[in-house]
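User: Sequence in, structure out. Go.
Assistant: Echoing your sequence, followed by the structure tokens.
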Amino acid sequence: MESPSPKENYLSQIADHAMVTFGLEPVFPPDAMKQLQSLLGPAQDSSGDIKDMREMLWCSIDNDDSRDLDQISVGEDLGGSRTRLWVAVADVDALVPLGSPLDLHARKNTTSVYTGVKTFPMLPEKLSTDLTSLNQDVERLALVIEMDVEADGSISQSSVYRARVVNKSKLAYNSVSAWLEKKGLLPASAERIKGMDGQLRLQDAAAQRLRERRHEAGALELRTIQTRPVTENGQVIDLKHEDQTRAGELIEDLMVAANGITAKFLTRKGFPTLRRVVKTPERWDRLVALAAERGTKLPASPDSRALNRFLQDQKAKDILRFPDLSLMVVKLLGRGEYVLDKPGEIPQGHFGLAVKDYNHSTAPNRRYPDLITQRLLKSALVSAASPYSLPDLQSLASHCTEQENAADKVERQMRKSASALFLSKRVGETFEALVTGASQKGTWVRLLKPPVEGYLAQGNKGLDVGDRLLVKLVGVSVEKGWIDFAKVNG
């Protein structure tokens, strides 16, 4: 790839090149754009079986800069620490029918790709951030997942149906979390809506019960370090460390519950499902050894409850190194994948979430498997045949897994390139670091500040994961995303 001139956005060009390299389309084809131009407004439907839920106190909670709003939520206090929750998911299929040019492009990439310097949306922004987004104060069609959460965090009843909804308050993770934890004021978007403060507390309390129930069942609580570049005029001016937040956990808990309900609903209706699974870890023996090195004995057979107890113990003992331990556990668990679950089959389940029934259904603007599930749900609701054949779903499961892996590679490449650009003027400086990987292939370290990972090119003898050391930055390659360090003796 030729180097761009100084006036060009170097990182943007690297992102475009990475998309093509890993088999993804960085631009929308002409026929998809032609279809987009024909869409003049949001989807309309006068069917009598669509509920009117526009007056409820719906809200969205997402990243500060998110504009593709896939879901909104609302709750009702049933008394006795029982809560009825509703999650509404944008009806994307209503404007992106199966087999249309926009659908074929979405099927090619299968996901939006967020590089930090440039976003490659699965659907054009006219759709994903406008016509099919659950934006504040506009009416939209949605699929609604209803559930009753009991005092012990169990779900006693659930249902799925179509509805008209209006998002009353667009909120963000950081400000909602600060308010829930009594560290900040109620966000202005919530303060202007009477009763929204109580709504947020109600949803948070129900989410905490759902989470506690999942952890009792063995759901793993992991904490990996996530960074995203802060750019200005094509230059990386900072690397922002993104921590898990209480509001982020709230939405995660609601989405896990909703995705479980949609999987069970389709199974009850005799439909195939595209399940999201993390299989029982094949490298459980290495996890056992990892725990033994830290004084904990795990059972010989995979046990998510025992693994989670070990993780909680390690988090309490050493919060500094816990993200690196979490990363090692994630790698040993193996990647998530999409699989076809045919009617009558026993689902494989999701080891990390400790659930048997789980698919992706709550983000159809940015993930193609969710759009597939939405079409299956809409067909099941009217007792129509599945819009997909079993061979097509089998092929799509493999394709979506492959393309998700490709998107991850693009995003990882861009994190490395952005970090390399950020550090490019600091070659020769010394940093505190932790060893995050040590094998015959090489040794990797993560700086404590800024939280950047790189290769220890010199002085790796005798080091092991978790060791703390001083390193000197000896070289970077922005285009390749390489960051090389050398150990500083003493």
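User: And one key feature?
Assistant: Confidence is low (pLDDT under 50) at residues 1-8.
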